[in-house]
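Lab notebook, bench 4. Still working through the backlog of constructs that have no structural model yet. Next entry is a single chain of 79 residues. Request: give me the structure tokens for it.
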Amino acid sequence: MTHNPLADLSKQLILRFGPTMGGQDLYAALGFKTYAAFHRSQQRQALGVHVFKLPGRRGWFALTVDIATWLMKQSNIQS
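Model written out:
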């Protein structure tokens, strides 16, 4: 059986956050210290992940799997 770091990370994040991430969990996972910094980047369309609104909910959300994929890409870029 091969080790798949992306699958492992995705599983860990989904177990902790569920299928979507929002609010402080979302902006912290993307490396922002504040919502204002996240929002500025989102307005410039520079987040690196697709974010969306959910009906009846406040704020922005992203798929947890997309966050895991983005994090793995960032770690590979830095290597």
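Notes after review: The first strand starts at residue 20 and ends at 22. Residues 17-78 form one domain. Flag for follow-up if needed.
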